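Forgive a beginner's question, but might I ask you for the amino acids of a protein and the tokens describing how it folds?
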Amino acid sequence: MPRVRHKLLTCSPGCPVEGVLHLIDGKWKGVILYHLLDGTMRFNEIRRRLTSVTQRMLTKQLRELEADGLVERTVFAVVPPRVDYCLTPRGRSLKPVIMAMKLWGDEHIVLQAAS
């Protein structure tokens, strides 16, 4: 079982929602998870898709996702170094959540921008 970075949330019926939000909090985590739904990607492939993210922030967000057991990092001993990222089974289990957010955004963000 992956190490959970966040405290145990047992305060109220809303805490499971709070727990999920803690796992995918941050400006980039949801977007990283969305792109990794397509399959394994290298660091620079992810960075090219997230044009506004800094290398430092992307590294930080990927490490947190890895620590929470949502992303797997594979390092290959080659020159130049190669690092691949993919979703773990736990990360893939978030697909319905990520896709629901995408669908909601498709329907509501465009409408908000048009008004």
Remarks:
- The CA atoms of residues 3 and 67 lie 6 Å apart.
- DSSP finds six helices and three strands in the chain.
- The beta strands are 41-42, 71-76, 82-87.
